[in-house]
Backbone:
């Protein structure tokens, strides 16, 4: 499918909510184009030659940070990664002063930011003259993760519309879940969550999300199951009795997956807690697990996002 770049009119990528269905399709179509060429080492379109991309990760990351860097470099850009742990943030410099300082010094063409505070990327976007991309904030937004999840599903199942997709586990504290619910719903998937009552949020970002507290019940008729990490860094004490009891009730095993459709596929955004939310036999199952495909698709999705935001006429 050829991407209709004209359909994309966003200045920043802060969240899923502002994106239209046409804009999501444009990102996915362009991501497909890049994904098909990812293994060609010589494929370096160089459309961002001379551009500077600044990454600011105020929280840890392996997948998102590295794939943004790889995406930018494959498009020919220069990337400046700031090591927050060794920056003047440690001396008390505010988020805005840090960004304005780096903005004045580097004149970046895009800023990619991950921050624990909800709204930090949107706040920064109001103070700089370049596109800002949210690489995850609080438990609410992680737009490029949701886009790469959608791409992974679409490439394997051929569509999103009409699929039954279960998001399973610590939904309350998960920005992956909060970004995926609106994206998958907009694209016509039927989204349900499966979680203990203590890990279901008071409110969902969109209407129409079914909830189950029994994994076996919730898995019925599912095409896709997305397992989530227990987000202990954002969780109050006592919401989960023990990792063992959690795994017994909600851990994905091959036995429990028999309740879903026979061709069910399993996803996990990572990092995984093996033996807590997912068994090794599922995580490493070459027929069912899409986990490494999700990681791989992070690069083309982020190439597409950088392309669309930085090469607008
Ligand atoms: N899925 C995800 O955001 O992973 P990282 O925290 O490693 O970036």
Residues:
């Amino acid at each position: 499918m050829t991407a209709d770049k004209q359909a994309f009119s966003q200045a920043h990528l802060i969240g899923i909510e502002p994106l239209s269905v046409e804009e999501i399709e444009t990102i996915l179509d362009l991501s497909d184009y890049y994904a098909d060429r990812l293994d060609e080492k010589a494929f370096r379109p160089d459309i961002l030659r001379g551009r500077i991309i600044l990454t600011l990760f105020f929280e840890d990351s392996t997948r998102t940070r590295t794939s943004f860097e790889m995406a930018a470099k494959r498009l020919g850009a220069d990337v400046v990664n700031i090591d927050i742990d060794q920056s003047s943030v440690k001396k008390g410099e505010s988020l805005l002063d840090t960004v304005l300082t780096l903005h004045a010094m580097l004149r970046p063409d895009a800023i990619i930011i991950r921050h624990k505070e909800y709204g930090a990327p949107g706040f920064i976007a109001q103070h700089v003259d370049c596109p800002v991309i949210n690489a995850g904030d609080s438990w609410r937004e992680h737009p490029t993760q949701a886009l790469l999840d959608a791409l992974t599903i679409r490439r394997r199942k051929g569509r999103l519309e009409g699929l039954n997709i279960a998001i399973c586990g610590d939904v309350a504290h998960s920005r992956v879940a909060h970004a995926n619910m609106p994206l998958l719903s907009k694209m016509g998937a039927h989204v349900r969550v499966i979680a203990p009552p203590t890990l279901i949020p008071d409110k969902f970002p969109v209407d129409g999300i079914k909830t189950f507290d029994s994994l076996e019940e919730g898995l019925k008729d599912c095409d896709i199951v997305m397992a989530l990490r227990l987000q202990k860094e954002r969780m109050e004490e006592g919401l989960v009795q023990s990792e063992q009891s959690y795994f017994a009730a909600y851990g994905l095993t091959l036995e429990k997956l028999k309740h879903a459709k026979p061709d069910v596929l399993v996803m996990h955004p990572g990092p995984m807690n093996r033996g807590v939310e997912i068994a090794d036999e599922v995580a490493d199952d070459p027929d069912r697990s899409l986990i490494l495909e999700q990681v791989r698709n992070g690069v083309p999705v982020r190439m597409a996002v950088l392309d669309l935001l930085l090469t607008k006429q």
Notes: The longest strand covers residues 52-57. Residues 61-64, 136, 145, 269-271 surround phosphoric acid mono(formamide)ester (CB under 6 Å).
